[in-house]
Amino acid sequence: MCGIVGLVGPAIQSAATLGPALHLLRRRGPDSEGRWSTPGIALGHRRLAVIDRSHAADQPMVDPLGRGVLVYNGELYNDPDLRRDLGAHGWSFRTRSDTETILAALIQWGPHALARMRGMFSLAFFDPATHTLLLARDPLGIKPLYWTHADDRLAFASELPALLSLGLVRPRPDPVTVSAYLTTIRTTLDQRTLYDGVRTLLPGHWLSLDVRNPSETRQVRRFHTPAAASPPDPTEIPAATRECVRRSILAHLRSDVPTCSLLSGGLDSTIVCSVAAEAAADLRTYAAGARGEAADTDLSFAARLAASRGWTHHEAIVTPEGFAERWPAMVADLGVPLSTPNEVAINAVARLLRSEGCIVALSGEGADELFAGYEAPMRSAAAYFESGGTDAPAFLLAEAAWVPTAVKPEVLLPDALSDAHADAELIAHYRELFALASRQDSDPLQATLRVVQQTNLTGLLQRLDTAMMLEGVEGRTPFADVHVAAFANALPLRSKFDPRVAGPAGSKIALRQAFADAVPPEILSRPKSSFPLPFQQWMAPLAPSLRSSDFIRSWFSRAAIETVAAHPAQLWRLAWPMLNLALWAETSLRTPHALSDLSPAAQTR
């Protein structure tokens, strides 16, 4: 787990210019820093040493025969299998590091190696013989990778502040993505980011270019992982599900550093912890939350479960004061607004477990998207299709919206809404996703689940990655695994979700059946919850800042600003994204040229 950064272009002669970016990535990689350059390209790396902690595994890693150079962020869970395959081609290895395995695989197979890799990764591989740079990102988007270009130069990095520090683009907002964020609370829209001219490499894609002429040779392609075998016989689905998930959890335990598991007291984290405890008798578990009223439900469920299993359990308690402090600090460090309030809780628990010596933490993210765990939205979709609904993309977008597209003319200034093209790109994106999903699944409800995967999963995984890497902690997600995803997508819908079954039992059916003997009944029947915080009440101290924010005044009507500033708890769906955008503009766009480019409204106000 690390941070990577690079510059490409004919004028690039050394890696010295990567210094500020590497400094900004120090939290992702606190253990070592490395740089490498040759005319036309400079690569940088910050390392969090997890597998083979010796300096022989440091990066950038250069092939001894000069056939390639690699910077890589992630973990490879099928490392032994790939080493065996490479051994058949004459490869031998000097380290235990999966970085060396990936370097050899890319030299041996080129981009075709990507489909062989089971893990989470973003990487940059340079082939000196062809002067080709390859950038790639794992199929589920667990690890982030951003890039931008200007004239004959291209830059990439694991985090946006590091990328922006390289100076290729000015930190100006992209109005289309800003408006999409208001609706989806996601900081990207397809390839677009909140920064104009900055792109994210999509999950499961690779970008290649000739470093001698990057602007003319750039191409982006998608790579495909092997499809799952035919679904098992219905009577065998619970056993097959258990075996598939169990294998993934055990594979995700590979580590040379102390490892623990997050425990929310829900189904998914209970499964992860129960299987992990098979291999780690002294399992340490961690939960986060707030005290008082119903907010400590996760904490109480997790504590009781851990006590009953003999796990060493710890709690990170988030207070209103701590929330008000960490929220703005995280926005400043990450260079983007937060997506969901529980990112603060995830960061708090990461800080605690790191202080107690843990470096790797397992988590249950991904189970809901793959096994249909979002009960209420799935029931709403089922009712919509049952009633004859035909515009699924519009329904899905409106159903999950924080600020619906239809409401924006009432709260946004006309110029801002025009800059955002009235969400035309956002709407088109959802239509494209549903069209693709419908070609894969004729059942509209199954297609809906695929769209939920496409829209929710990458943002969810990014949330975990960024919140934990701020503390130098590697988050691992055994459910969000290419083998588990292929297996889950091959299952019939009724083995995952059945609207005829009342309550939580109608969702994640295969998982509930597969682990019925490992999960207490009170957790099997418990509604979904994940480190919730009473953020609606906690936003009040920051709400008055909306009135003084140049960015907010350039986007929102005076009436909307005054109403939300006065009543943030009641209007929390609008207050949360507005306050996040205000914090983002204050910390990441505070340059004269950035503020002058907020929107036409800012220039004519």
Q: Could you please describe the fold and organization of this structure?
A:
Helix 13 (375-386) runs antiparallel to helix 14 and helix 17 (424-440) crosses helix 18 (444-469). By secondary structure, the protein is α+β, with helices and mostly antiparallel strands. It folds into three domains: 2-222, Aminohydrolase, N-terminal nucleophile (Ntn) domain (Glutamine Phosphoribosylpyrophosphate, subunit 1, domain 1); 234-371 and 450-524, HUPs (Rossmann fold), CATH 3.40.50; 539-604, no CATH class. Helices cover 43% and strands 16% of the residues. The model is unreliable at 592-605 (pLDDT under 50). The chain is globular and about 60 Å long. The protein has a six-stranded antiparallel beta sheet.
Radius of gyration of CA atoms, rounded to a whole number: 24 Å
| CATH architectural designation of the largest domain | 4-Layer Sandwich
CATH superfamily of the largest domain: Aminohydrolase, N-terminal nucleophile (Ntn) domain
Shape: globular
How many DSSP helices? 27
Q: Provide the spatial order of strands within the biggest beta sheet.
A: 2-3-1-9-8-12
Q: Helical proportion?
A: 40-55%
Task: Describe the largest sheet.
Answer: 6 strands, antiparallel
Quote the beta fraction.
Answer: 15-25%
Question: Which structural class should the secondary elements be placed in?
Answer: alpha+beta
Any low-confidence stretches, pLDDT <50, length ≥5? 592-605
In total, how many beta strands? 19
CATH overall fold name of the largest domain: Glutamine Phosphoribosylpyrophosphate, subunit 1, domain 1
Head-to-tail CA distance between termini: 46 Å
CATH class of the largest domain: Alpha Beta
What is the mean pLDDT? 93
Number of domains: 3
